[in-house]
Amino acid sequence: TMMRTETFRSYQEFNDEVEQDQNLENTEAEDVNDGILPDVDDGTGSKNPSMGFSRTCLKNVFSVILILIYLLLMAVAVFLAYQTITDFQDKLKHPVMSVTYKEVDSFEAPGIALYPGKAQLLSCKHYFHDHMPPLVKPGQPGEVDCVKDHINYTDPFTNNTMKHALVVQGPTDVRKKELIFLQFSQNETEQDFSAISYLLFYSFKEFKGSQNKAQFMKDCEKSYSVWTFSGGFRTWVKMSLVQTSEKDGSKSVEFRQESSVVKYYDKRLESEKTNQLFFVVFEWRDPFIQQVRDIITANPWNTIAILCGVFLALFKAADFAKLSVKWMIKIRKRQLKRKARELNQVG
Fold first, then answer.
1. Are 149 and 208 in contact (CB under 8 A)?
2. How many Å apart are CA 83 and CA 343, to the nearest integer?
3. Which residues are within 8 A (CB) of 174 and not within 5 positions of it... i.e. 6 or more apart?
4. How big, in percent rounded to 5, are the helix, strand and coil portions of the chain?
5. How far is Cα 324 from Cα 304, in angstroms, rounded to an integer?
6. Span 96-131, pLDDT tens digits
């Protein structure tokens, strides 16, 4: 019986030692897997802890460098998000002007308001295909074959000066190059400079249908520019139309013009040259209406997509940094535990 009891105790002590050895090996294996190498025997029987420490230190340095890199990337991502939002707001405040051209077969007849003063209308006629026959008896009353109207109104800027306007219906058929030719005569001894002013407005039809034509002409003079043509020359005016879309959805119309001036060779008798002659031609330049509107180039969907990518990168970088910090803390704790275990073994 004593022999059996001693044998059982020896077998139990042997099992306890084997289990302790296996636990130690498993712990060291975990340390190796976590980046902490066990002390290495240098061949003389003594262990060298410098190799394991150097590898652990190197990995910690790499982790710190990676964290710094990701912090830099996070700063770049934040700057990119700020720049994207700033650009979007700037594009909202400063829309881009868009210009398109609409081709038409004919224009609505514009109104041509002339301010002849004391000059007399001698002739007025429409022609086509840029063909204008030679003058017959210049300075003498000729054919007046155009739609016209006379209107008197007070000056909208002074309110105490009466103005007289001759309003003529302009050309419409741009495909056939329709033009209107007008001839005026004025005694040149009555003033120092010989010129006739005129303005162009969008619709002669609106003028004819207006209940208050005087107020209509006041509004036109406030809205449109006034030009002049001189006596002793033939002024050829080529008109073009510009439509501008305002922010409130309304549209404004503006005339642009190109004019060429040709000197008139006066072949009248000297006795007839006391009157200065004025010649003016109005014609459409081309069959295009220039349409101008402001467009906003800022695309909210592009901005949202960029911001989503930026925030995703920020979350990924923050998650990586958090895992790196946890990994370093875990390594530090295991180092402390291992040192404590070594000190216990030595004791």
1. yes
2. 57
3. 104, 105, 106, 107, 284, 286, 287
4. 40, 30, 25
5. 30
6. 778 889 999 999 999 999 999 888 999 999 999 878
